[in-house]
Amino acid sequence: MMVQVTAPPVRLPRYKRAVSPPPMQLTARDVRILSAASDMRFLTREQVQELLFSPSTASYCKRRLALLYHNAYLDRIYVPALNSFGSTKAIYTLATKGASVVARDRKIDERELDWRARHNDRELYFMRHTLAINDFRIAVTLAAQERGLAVSWTDERALKRREMKDYVDDPKHQGRQLVVVPDGYFTVEQGRHKSAFAVEIDRATVEEKPFKEKVRAYGEWKVTGTYERRYAIKSLRVLWVIADVTRDSTRLERIKRWTEAEGGRSLFWFAMLDDISPQTIIEAPVWQVAGRDGRYPLLTGGETWSGGTLQPDTSSPFPRGSAPG
Questions:
Q1: Are 5 and 11 in contact (CB under 8 A)?
Q2: What is the CATH number of the domain that holds 110?
Q3: In a 3-state reduction of DSSP, which class is residue 249?
Q4: How far apart are CA 297 and CA 282, in angstroms?
């Protein structure tokens, strides 16, 4: 009697590509992974898993990412973990071979894809900032999918282009202009009802004076009609999401006070990134609002999520409809 012996799987190197990578057949989900890397630039395994896999398939997600990396569809960057002693964390980015796949899937020329290999070479602060944006974006995307809402997201790369920037007069300094460039902008739509949001990820690096300038910029952007002319919609909330409290454990309360000191009211909403998930971001009371006490769901009061229907925002962003400052 012959006994068949199965060779153990080859252990792939962690910090460099395998010289002879295991063969793979690209699946539809692999293409979605590459597309997400193109759109979001930097992704952790946990983010990819949350976005495209079920909780029970963590090992399969890890295997597909390893195959995509060793077959040169993705690049992998190791950075120090924030709260692990001396360990490193893998960050996945699109590689040139993967960019070609995404371009073919979208039926566009590769030169039209908003990606270049040099985009992967970023400092650690920028990567962590982008990962925080992506945590928020993934929560919005999944929450909308679960509720049958349509989401449209404009990322920081697009918003930083010259033609997308808006300049407004600083109400406190005559002759001076302020620029408005959110970290992200998205709309949530159901039928005829649409709500719009500008996102600011706060990692406690902006001091009081420039922070208040941002508040004034957003206030002028809204009340002067500059925002509405840009996006052809009246609805707007500015969402400040606190992603790092290691520098300042009271950061949310601090920037809420700074906002209120500039006259900011219901235009400005605040939440901790740790409190945000697909289950909480829309309907759970995790948000604080300038000028109000308590905590609120994102789409209740103003925009409401009532009986499964999204209703328009009719509230004034500032007292008596005036600009901050």
A1: no
A2: 1.10.10.10
A3: coil
A4: 6
Residues 292 and 166 occupy one common structural domain: yes
Q: How many residues would you count in the chain?
A: 325
- Domain membership flag for residue 22: no
Sheet containing strand 43-44, edge to edge, reads 43-44, 88-94, 74-80
- Summarize pLDDT for 165-224 with one digit per residue, the tens: 999 999 999 999 999 999 999 999 988 889 999 999 999 999 999 999 999 999 999 999
Q: Which residue has better confidence, 11 or 28?
A: 28
- What domain range includes position 272? 127-321
Q: What's the pTM value of the predicted model, to 2 decimals?
A: 0.87
Are 161 and 310 in the same domain?
A: yes
One domain, residues 176 and 252: yes
In angstroms, the CA 202 to CA 276 distance is 14
Final residue of a domain: which of 60, 92, 122?
122
- Position 84 scores a pLDDT of 53
Which among 85, 102, 122 is the end of a domain?
122
The CB density around residue 298, as the number of other CB atoms within 10 Å, is 26
Give the chain's domain count.
2
Q: Please check whether residues 140 and 108 belong to one and the same domain.
A: no
Question: What is 161-227 written as a DSSP string?
Answer: SGGG-EEEE-TTSTT-EEEE--SEEEEEEETTEEEEEEEEEE-S-S-HHHHHHHHHHHHHHHHTSHH
Please name which of 92, 91, 117, 112 lies closest in space to residue 102, comparing C-alpha atoms: 112
Task: State whether 178 and 111 are in the same domain.
Answer: no
For 106: left if phi > 0, alpha if psi spans -120 to 50, otherwise beta; the answer is: alpha
279-308 residue pLDDT tens: 999 999 999 999 999 999 998 544 433 333
